[in-house]
Each structure stands twice: as C-alpha cells, then as structure tokens.
Write a structure and sequence with these properties.
Layout lengths: L1 E5 L2 E4 L4 E8 L7 E7 L6 E6 L5 E3 L7 E6 L4 E6 L8 E8 L11 E2 L3 E6 L1
Parallel strand pairs: 2-11
Antiparallel strand pairs: 1-3, 3-8, 4-5, 4-9, 5-6, 7-8, 9-10, 9-11
Length: 120
Amino acid sequence: VHPVESGGGSVQTGGSLKLSCVVSGDTFSRYVVAWFRQAPGEEREGVATIDQDGVITYADRAKGRFTISKDTAKNTLYLQKNSLQPEDTAMYYCAAGMYGGFASQLYKYWGQGTQVTVSS
C-alpha cells in the first residue's frame, strides 16, 4: 500500500489549499485513511480520519476549517483546508491502516508528506 500526497504549497493567512493522496497497492476501501501533520520540533498529530464506512472524525484544531473526503473509485483521499493560519504550517502526511483513531502507531502505511507553509 503506497500513499502519495500532493497539493501542498505556500499560502498567505486566510488562504486555502486542497491536499490529495492517491493510495495504490490494495483495495482502498479496506482501510481507515487519515491525515496527520507534523510541525518542526513537534510530535506528529492527527488531523482527520475517515473509516471504511465513511465515518469522519476531526481533531479539534481541524473542526470547522478542514474537510476530509475520499473518492473510492479514484483511490484518493482529500483534505480541503480553508482559513489557513500560520500555525497550520507543517508537513502533512496521508496514512492508511485497519483501525481508526489519531494514534499514529495504528497506521501501517504512510506517504512521504507534503509541506504546507502559511505566511502572515
């Protein structure tokens, strides 16, 4: 299973970005898929997850600004990020696993990450 992220970049405060993650190598719908973030000097933390049944969970910092979605036919996970703030600056990772939650050790498959930088 190979997640590959794209869509990161540099934006100004208040801007938007849409991250994508194509997951190849196995049946996409078998997995819980999630977005994590890691800022310099910080632990990796969960942003949002979507499970095999389409149930979505957001971390508190993502509620109201970020939207996770998936297109099973395209094996693709998305994260729409609106009203971006400088504290959203981080490397964003796509992950796939058999169990949900925000503990990174639950996810066996990880992408290389896509950098998001928000300037004030």
